[in-house]
Every structure is written in C-alpha cells, then in structure tokens.
From TrEMBL:
Protein name: Cell wall protein
Entry keywords, A to Z: Signal
Keyword Signal: yes
Signal peptide (from-to): 1-17
Length: 434
C-alpha cells in the first residue's frame, strides 16, 4: 500500500477550504463493499457521525501514518472517545489499534494493515476537519488558512507561458514542469525525476529564463513564499477534497499495477451480477480481478475499455471506474511508448479549462491538465496527481460536472492510448515514490 506516503505528499501541498454548512461532510462516491466487513458504508456521509473536527483531524493523521506525537493530545483524546462509542461500526481489532495509537507512546504509528482498513473513510474525516477550519499536514494539525502550497504569481505565469511557447526544443521533462508551474499548479505534481531535471536546467548556463523568473521558479520548487511566489489561496469545496480522494484511489493500485484485494472483490461482485456485459470488456476486467497488471492489454483493448468507462452503459460505481482507469495508467508507466493528444483535442480542452470549470478544480488538477494541453504525455506526471485528476473525471468528487467529451479526451490521455498521436521517446520519470 502506498497510501501513507503518497497521501502525505498530496495532502501536505493542497489547501482545504471550509465547506459550506451541511448536515454531513461532502460525500465522495464510494463502493459499499470496499472496506470489506470492517466498515458499514450504507450511509457513507454518516459513517463518521459524531466525530468532532479535532477527532477527525486525528483520524487523518493516523491514516497518513503519522506518529502520535505529531497530533495534539486533545485531538487524539477526542478520537479515542469517539472510536470507543457504541455507534461506530468498525472491527474490534481496528478499534483497538486506533485506541492504542491515540493513547500510546509518542512514536506510535498505525500498522499498514489498519491504515488499509480505514483509509477509504479518510476523505470524510478531512471534510469534517475542514468544517472546523482544520487541516492536517506532515507537521500536524493547522488552521485552514495556513500556507500549504505555493504558486507562481499570475504575471510571472503569463511570462513563463510566453517563454515555453518560444522554446519548442525544451527537454520534455523540463517542459512538463514549466507547464505545471505556468498553469498555477503545485510542485507535488512533479515526479522526482522531473523535479531533478528542472533543477538542473535552472542551474545550467544555457537556461534562457530571466534571473527574476528563474529565482521565482526555484522558490516554487522549494515550496517557499517569496518574490513572485505566493501561498495558495482559498479554493472551492470540491477542490478542497479532491486531493484526499485522489490519494485513496491511488492507494488501490500498487506500483506494479496490481489492484488491492478489497477492490478486486468489489469488481468481481459487480461482474458476476451483470447479465449482458460485453465479452471483451468482461475479459479485460478479469485481467484486473486476476491480480495482474494491464500491461498484457493491447492498444485496441485499452482504447475500448477507456471509452466504455465513460459510456452511459457502464454501471460501475464512480470509484471503481477510477480504480480501473488508474490501473490502466500504471500500464503507461510500465510501457516504453506513450502518446499525446491530437490538436483538435487540445483545442477542446483549452476552451473548456478557460471557462467557469476552472474555479472548481484544484491547483494540482489544473496543473496536470496543463501538461495534456501542452502536448506532453502523462508519463512525466506524478501518479498521485494523476489519481486526483481521475477522481474528478470519474465523478468521485461531488460538485464537479464534466461532459463526456472532456472525460474521454482526458481519460484516453491518462490511459496512454490517444489513438494516432504517438510519442516514441524513451520512457522517463515513471512514478513518483517520494
């Protein structure tokens, strides 16, 4: 499971806005069986009913694999009290482990197995904490207004866009990084190799950027507020929860492209309930449920399966769609050939992102889309950032409506098979493990 390390990376760099008042925290769409028998998700939004904002923040810290000492004692006490109540429907061993973390030594961390059992509820805990103006990062619990991500200021973004357009021969990794920066994206969207490539480029004598822009990009790379770089401002409720949902989706598929057992069970149950499922679709999904990577699927299979995920005939839950799409994305990371979008698709995306939808998207998602619009392949984008985009595309994030044509364009880009536009350059920066 990669959830702990990747979720820390994703959540520590995304601002979480205070959601509007509601009876329950914003509810992403989850498959009921995904927590096996451990948690009853008949009413997902109510799964953490009665948990205070501080207690929810402690839940988030625990599920991110943080040491108990990082989380305030009062928050851990709230969580321990709530978790011991009769209303919570968790396996006794999970309850005991969380209590031990709340009350144990300062260096206590939850076991990976326990994190796997509770991680799918983490987005709800994040929403509850955010309603109390709290957010959790690697340093502990802080106020929602605290700077948890930095972006290049608008005037420098425009200057950088002009520079990119005038320098078509930039190294692909450098170009991906600069496009994310110019789109107001976050450095967390970059894989480790791409960050290293940009750092080396900035320090090279051949770098054509002005001194001021170069200095600002270096600040952005280090996550530091300074001249030309500002803290990420308030974001929409949908944008505020998309990072955590992306982290939960990303946790479902390991770096070798194998889907976790709980998701396999859920997908198997769905397949067995279908009476008229296309034979090819069924066969491709059974590769997934057979605990195999998507590497064995040919180009035609990937194209057709991706299109089916966004077809009205597909009745998979939003989260299962997301998991299958991330499963296909890992195939891109394992293959030697990747593809880029056609000019017509880029034009459609450019017009779409220039509309009202941009206000609902997180900085990470906008940065990833900027890479697609720049005519670059998905392979140089960190896998957790891709998973956040996938969560939005498949409808896991409530409050964001995306038309089918946009879903298909970005879906095929994520799955790495955009039909005729091939980029046969050497595979680079496959997955961000940091």
């Amino acid at each position: 499971m990669r959830f702990a390390t990747l979720a820390i990376s994703a959540l520590a760099t995304c601002a979480i806005a205070r959601p509007a008042p509601m009876s329950h925290a914003p509810a992403p769409v989850f498959e009921r069986s995904l927590l096996s028998a451990a948690v009853d998700l008949l009413d997902p939004a109510a799964a953490l009913d009665g948990l205070s904002a501080e207690g929810a923040a402690a839940w988030v810290g625990a599920s991110l694999g943080l040491e108990a000492s990082v989380i305030d004692v009062s928050a851990r006490t709230d969580l321990a009290t709530w978790i011991g109540g009769a209303s919570v429907n968790l396996d006794a061993s999970v309850v005991a482990a969380i209590k031990d973390w709340c009350n144990g030594a300062s260096s206590a961390e939850l076991d990976v197995e326990v994190i796997a059992e509770i991680s799918l509820l983490t987005p709800f805990a994040i929403a509850i904490a955010a309603a109390g103006d709290l957010v959790v990062d690697v340093e502990g619990i802080v106020s929602v207004g605290a700077a948890v991500g930095v972006v290049l200021e608008a005037s420098l973004q425009a200057t950088l866009e002009t520079f990119i357009a005038a320098n078509a021969d930039l190294d692909a990794e450098v170009k991906v990084a600069l496009n994310i920066c110019a789109a107001g994206g976050l450095v967390a969207s970059l894989s480790a190799d791409v960050k290293a490539a940009l750092t080396a480029y900035l320090d090279d004598a051949s770098c054509g950027l002005s001194a001021s822009l170069k200095a600002a990009i270096k600040l952005w790379l280090s996550g530091t507020v300074g001249v030309g770089v500002s803290a990420l401002g308030t974001v929409s409720t949908a944008a505020s929860i998309s990072a955590s949902i992306g982290a939960a989706i990303d946790a479902a598929v390991d770096v070798s492209g194998i889907v976790s057992a709980s998701y396999i069970s859920s997908l198997e149950a769905w397949i067995s309930a279908q009476t008229d499922l296309d034979a090819d679709i069924k066969a491709w999904l059974e590769v997934c449920t057979g605990a195999e990577s998507a590497l064995s699927l040919d180009v035609d299979a990937v194209i057709k399966l991706t299109a089916w995920l966004f077809d009205s005939s597909c009745t998979l839950s939003a989260q299962l769609k997301a998991v299958v799409l991330v499963w296909l994305n890992v195939r891109v990371n394992l293959a030697d050939t990747v593809s880029v979008l056609a000019a017509a698709d880029i034009a459609t995306l450019t017009a779409w992102i220039g509309g009202d939808i941009a206000a609902s998207l997180s900085a990470t998602v906008k940065g990833v889309i900027a890479v697609a619009i720049a005519g670059e392949a998905v392979v140089n984008v960190s896998v957790d950032a891709v998973a956040e985009l996938v969560g939005v595309l498949t409808g896991c994030v409530s409050g964001i409506d995306i038309s089918v044509d946009i879903q298909i364009i970005l879906g095929k880009w994520v799955s790495g098979e955009t039909c005729d536009c091939k980029n046969n350059s050497t595979k680079r920066a496959l997955v961000s493990h940091a």
